[in-house]
Predict the 3D structure of the following.
Amino acid sequence: MLDKKGNLLYIGKSKQLRNRVQSYFGNNLNSNRIIRMVRFIDDIEVVICENHLECKLLELKEIQKEKPIYNVQFNRKRKLAYLQINEKEIKIDYSEGFGPFASERVLNNFIQEIIYLFPLEIRDGRIIYSYQILPAKQTPLEKKTSNLALNELFSDRDLMADFRASLEQQMLINSKKLYFEKAKYFRDLRTLMEQISYRLFDFKDLFEAKIIYEEAGIYYLIYNGQILHKSPSLKEIKSIILPDINIKITDANYDLINLIYSHIEKEQDGRVIELEKKPFLTIV
């Protein structure tokens, strides 16, 4: 969308373009930002893409390049957050630790909520905790034990799964007893742990896997958050040997990587043909 001088106002995408454009000129706009933008629209340029994934990729690329003033998504600097846990403290860092996470909000909420279960310990492969209405004051030894337990929780998929299941159980138990505030606490903490678990384990599995994805007759080879090759021929895609690369997720490439995996996971527009986890089988 452009103004009279040809200045770029906004970049968007849609499967139903006519409906999307008409929605900007109706009477039901509830965003002051959009209402202001509509006043300046003089022309609309359209690019037709091969499929929805290509459309998303183009939208991201153009927004990050052109930075239209009325785009919010993808139009700001990203600051990834990590969670650092040592014997003495739990804190948010911006360079290393457990992560990365798109923002510090989830980690801040986790730090604020988990203290009601302190002190923690691991016993027989499970996280042992007891809910406190007010956070308990821990001795130095208890603090060390709790932090070590959290460190292991964030490192072990099975321990994380068991902890999430126990939070679900506590939510149900307290709900049946009509302890709704306590049930809400366990529900909210369970939701946080689901978000954290996905980022630490499931997302990492996708990032490290060799994936062949198909959408609208185009096959994509995806690895390390990169689309390495695309072709209408599945045979051609399968013949490609993965290069020796080790991409790291950074502030600069996070949006692209997250876009690719969130799109293919939904499988609304295409399908995952193959997903091969490390170690890869190489035929010589």
The first strand starts at residue 81 and ends at 85. The radius of gyration is 23 Å. Residues 9 and 147 are 49 Å apart (CA to CA).
